[in-house]
Each structure stands twice: as structure tokens, then as C-alpha cells.
Prior knowledge:
The complex is a heterodimer of chains A (533) and B (313). With 533 residues, chain A is an alpha+beta fold. Chain A is 30% helix and 19% strand. Chain B is globular and about 85 Å long. At the A-B interface, helix 1, helix 8 and helix 14 of A face helix 2, helix 3, helix 5, helix 7 and helix 8 of B.
Amino acid sequence: MDRRSFLKATALAGALGAAGGMPAPALSQGAAARTLRFVPQANLANFDPIWGTQYVVRNAAALVWDTLYGFDDQLRPQRQMVESEQVSADGLTWDFRLRPGLKFHDGSTVTAKDVVASLTRWSARDSMGLMLKALQQELVAVDDRNFRWVLKKPYPKMLMALGKNNTPMAFIMPERLARTDPFTQINDYIGSGPMRFKRDEWIPGARSVFEKFADYVPRDEPSSWLAGGKRMGIDRIEWLVMPDPATASAALQNGEVDWWENPITDLVPQLRRNRNVRADIADPLGNIGSFRMNHTTTPFNNLKARQAVLAALSQEDYMRALVGDDDKMWKPLPGYFTPGTPLYTEEGGDILKGPRNMELAKRLLAESGYDGSPVPCIVAQDQPITKAQGDVTADLLKRIGFNVDFVATDWGTTGQRRAMKNPVGQGGWSMFHSWHSGADCINPGVYQAIRANGDGAWFGWPNIPAVETEVNNWFEAPDLEAEKAAIRRLNKAAIDNVVYAPTGFFLGYQAWRANVSGIVKGPLPFFWGVSKA
Amino acid sequence: MFAYFVRRVLATIPVMAIVALFVFSLLYLAPGDPAAVIAGDQATPQDVERIRASLGLDRPYLIRFGEWFWNILNGDMGVSIFTNLPVTTMIKQRIEPTLSLMVLTLCLAVSIAVPMGVVAAWKQGTWVDRAVMGFAVLGFSVPVFVVGYVLAYVFALELDWLPVQGYTAFSSGFGPWLENLILPATALGMVYIALIARITRATMLEVLQQDYIRTARAKGAGQANILFLHALKNAAVPIVTVIGIGVALLIGGAVVTESVFAIPGLGRLTVDAILRRDYPVIQGVILLFSFVYVLVNLAIDLLYTLFDPRIRY
């Protein structure tokens, strides 16, 4: 008997009479091996992947709801719930056929009507979906397994839109749920994916539980990210929310959890010293740090003030503040698109390369006519990524000559403040920090932050027609070469006009117990193929 | 006595009404927007506006307050903006871990601190007294999260005696329940032990100088009898007062302790709700905490009569 068991037994013996309680039966070894305890990146506070577009909701939803198509690890959309598709010669009519045997978790069959309702709800919230909606002539169920999407204009990125992993994903729900207004939360979680959500065991902020859905029919192909056969090697997954990284680290080392989605870099050396723990890169697509300026008010409504920032900004400073001294975890990014993906380019990125030019920055600032008025920098202190970037920015802007008004706040307040279009001095803002998942920066279709269509653009509202022209050219590009050409021009226009200032490309870790196998690197945790000894 | 009890219970109603008004107004004035948090980082301003409208957050203050207050009077704390679950359900899910932590901490602290204070007063000026006071200073000075990390490192990671995190319901057995709570209760109890030990020592020192103690000694009463029957009972009123005041300390400390030990209690629920601006949850939890605090104070007032029969209401 080890000391822990001895203590437990002693405490029990002493307390049994008074409490009258018996310990819960321990899980058998087999049951323990079929249960995976996972520490997610954040709390699953809601569970409607169309209404709430946080990554953690998307990650959980990918277990519970299936999609028509799914991205594989080469970022190609592959058939998932769809058996076949056909597009007319003019590119206007798409006919889709569902796989046979698809079931919802309540036992009902997945039909084309469910798909039509799901796509209708999704397309009201997703940027690519909104484009499709604008082009839509009709979206109808032909019969139980077939549906048709008729467009007014060809949309070559149709399969990408249906299979992308960016939030919101086009998840397929029962029609009765999908008829819910897209801006109102669903209140039932009947899914179509490989795991069912245990609502009765859900304690938001603490625990979410998923159980294997026996009637799920996986595809025959090997799994690859969101594509292929989603075969579950475990029967039950428990998501245990741990807000404190030190606690999560200790729990993983102690064997109380099996997989931690996002350990902070500082703790990784300690984890690696434990022979029962493995740590590796989580997502090869990484993240892009963002210094987002307000194009509608002073001083960054002036191009030269924005260029002054680019001339002086040292991505190395930002990245070292974010990920420390591990050079494998970051790289400079003289552009906007994710390194290692087909559309990556450095066209026009010279201003971000080489030694930083503080003299040029000061000269550009003087030419901008900046009058020394305060520059509100909104920095969320409760997000390590924004806090670290904000500290570097405060120093950078002061050295250039800006009068920094450092607004230390939390993410909730940042969310409200950044939506305000008031001038500086009346509640407005000049810049805030964010970061974008690399998977969201692989092309303009999923990259809201690169858009420069004024009021329709992301916070900061850049209005740069040259960027939008190339976005449209990309959407209409007939092949990859044409896409690449459009993106090269887009990247140059975006840097020339400083849509935003990229602060670098960085990676994150994931860590797991040595007895867990099948964990792959990807933009979200993929649980199919994972097993536990 | 009964009339006093009824009067005090009735007096909680205006207190709770003022707390309700204060909490609602404070949240209304505080910056932050749940709609922006819900919409996520990729949402457009138009999306945020639509979500805000769907949640009713664009309505005037008075209408929102009136509706919320009416629902509270009808026992309905509302529905969480984020989880879509009733606030009462969320509180029910979380109340047991927090109550368990607080009760265990209270028991642990009182059972350790009171004897410590008594002994320190008895042995005034000796090394025992100095050791107790040294411990009290340490307990006051070291933050609860530091104690928590140290305990978790030693007893969970190094010795592997206890789990690092989590909570096991009392219904699963006293042993597993205690196994999960002993470290957090010890961490949370440190400052409480220090506080009670100091106040016990100070009050006991005063009581031990009284004539009736000298009389008891002259009549040949034993040391234990003098300390724990004659002196402690007379010193109990200020000690009980401090224990009652300390409940607020426990509520505050539970927020940190629950985060360090990943206990799914009301403290963490409150922090999560504040960070997300989940107004109905924040309002519900603060009202509950206020109510508990008012009740604890009432209980303390009633306890006075038990320790000092001269006190009459």
C-alpha cells in the first residue's frame, strides 16, 4: 500500500462512522483507459458554434457536429458528410448528395432539409457564408439525400467555405435547432458527429463531458485533420477547465489529466523533464501577432504615422516578449499570410525587414503632422499575448515620439472599446493588440483582419480599395497561380497602406501523458485517432 | 429573543434591496460588453450590435432594472447570457464545493487557532508565545496562492500523497471529499488561523488578569479548567465576532483558492462571469454572498447570548 492509499484509508476509517459515506467505486483500469481527461485552452461557456464563435466552442463542436466537407492537413477540402457533388458547366448550380446512414444523436436520420436549415443559419454569420448568401438564387432540399444550391454568379471557393476550420464552421444540426435565429443561442445539443455532448454533466467553467456516439458512421479514408474517418479510440472525453497554468502543469505531471491543449512556454522545460510527459508544437500554422491601428481617427488616420510604426517595429522584440528565447517558436513575418501555406508571400515587405530605422520613423511621424496629442493604446492585461505585446508597444511608440496613453484593461472592455468609432478624447482609441490563428490567415476568404472595406472591415476600419480589388481577384481566380498573383499584389497593397502591423509569427505548445498516442499537430485538437494505454 | 430574530430577518429585506440596486447600477456603469465577448475576435461591429440587441442590452437602464428586480422578487435570478442556463442552476452546481471549502476551512482554522491563541496567552513571553505570534505574522504575510502552490508542490507533486486539483462531491464519500479539499482548506485557512489566534491571545490575556480568574485559581481549579472553561468562555464574544467578520475574508480567499486548485465553486464562477460581463450571473452570486453574510452576522449576534447571558435583545 502506498502512502496516498494509506492516508485515504485512514481518513476513511476515521470518518466512516460520522459521515456514513462510502467512497465512490474507482474506475477500472479498462474504463480509465477509455476516458481521456483534457485541459482545453478556455472555458466552454456556451455551446452554440454559430452563435458563439470562440475557438473553444468550435473545438468542442467539431466533436459533436459533423460537416459536409473538412480540411485535411494540406488545407484541401475533402468530402465528409457528402458522398458526391456536381457543379454545372456555368458554375451556377451545385448538386450535393449525402452519404447514406448518417444519424443524429437522437437516432433520427440526417436529411437534406437539416442541411439546408443548417447552411442557412451558418451563412448568416460567416464571412464566406455571407458572400454565398448574397449570390444565392435558391438553396433547396431535392429529396432526403440531395440538396441543390443555385447561385447568381459562380463561386469557385464553395467547397472551401463548407469545409474550412475557421469559426463559424458549417456544422450540420437537426432542422429544428438550425431554425433558431443565428443571433440567438440554441438550447439543445443534438449532434451529427462522433461524440455526443453530455448536457447533464456540463458545469460551465469547470467540466464538459463527451461520450462516444455508437451510431456514427466514419468514412473509410484515414483521418487527416477534419477529413477522413473520425474513429474514436476512447469512449469518454472529459474537458477539465483549469484557469491556472501552474495547476494544469502539476495535474499533467501528476497524471490527473492526460492532455493539455496550450501549456505556456515558460512551463514547457519543466514538463519535458518529466519522463511521463511529452510536449511538442500544437499547431504548425501558428499565430500572427497584430498591432491594430484605428484608420478613422488621429494619429493613425494618416498613412505616414502608420508607416512610422512599421519602420521602427522590431518583430524580434515582440516575439521574445511572447515566447521567450526559444528561436524555434517564432519567426519574423514581413507579410500578412501564414508562413508555409500556399499563398504565403513577402511581396512589399521590405519595410519590415533588416535593422529597424528609428530615424526614418521619426521623420515620417513629423511629416504626418502629429501634434503630440495622446494616443490611447488599449491593452488587455488578462490575456498574456496582448499584455506582452502592449508592453513592447508602449516603449516603441514613446521612442518614436508618440504621446502614449496606455489604457490597461481587460479583454471584455477591449471588446467594447474597440468597437467605438468616436474620435480620440471622446472615448475613441488609437490602437489595440490582438492575434490571429494562422489557420485564419491562409487566404482572404477566412481572413477578416486583412479586409480593408471601410465600415465593413474589422476594427480599425481600413478603407483601401487596392486591397479589396485583390481580395475580389482572389475569389474569382480560376487556379492557384492566379490566386498567388492576386495575393502578392494584395500583400504589397496591405503593407504599403498598413492595414495593420504584424508583430511576428509564433507557435504554441501542447503537452500530453506518455501513455496517450495519436495526437497530431493541427489548428484544433483532433480527438479521433487518439488512444490511451 | 424571537421578536429580535424576526426583526433582524425582516431587516435583511431592505439591505438586500439596496445591495441589488447597487450591484445592478455598478454593472451598468462598468465598462465592458458581453456581446463583444460572445461575438468573438473575428466578429464585425454589425454582428456585435445584433447580439447586443438580441440580449436586450440596448434597452434603457430603468426598464432592465425593473424587469430584473421583479424577477428576483419572484425567485427568478435570470438566465446566464453565455451558457443559456438559469443562474439558479449554475449556483446549485457550484455551491457545494464552495460551502465545503468554507466549512472545512472554518473548522480547521477554529480548531487550530483557538487552542494556539489560548496557549500563547497562557505562556505569554515564552518561546511558545513567540512561535505562535511568528506563525501568525507569517500567515498574514504570505498570500494564499503562494501557500497553495507550495502545498501542491510538496504534498501532490513531490510526495504524491494528495491530488493537485479538482473536487469530489461529499456524496462520493468523506475520504475522497477530504482528499481533494485538505490542501485548499489549509491554504485558505492560514490567514484565518493567524487572525483568530492573535485575537484569541489578546482577549485571553485580558481575561486572565480578571479577579474571577484569580478566585478560580485560589479555589484550586486546574489549569485546563481555568483556561478553557473560565477564561475562554468569557473571551468568546470578540473571538466569535472576528470569526464572523472572517467569513467575508473566506469568500474573497475562496476565489483565489478555487482557481489555484481548480475547484468548480462559486468563486471561480464569479471571476469567469466578471471577465465575460455575464451580468445575471454576477448579480445572482453577489446577492447570494450578501445574503449569506447578513445571515452569518445574524447568527453571530444570536451566539453572543449563548456566551454571555447578560446580553439580551
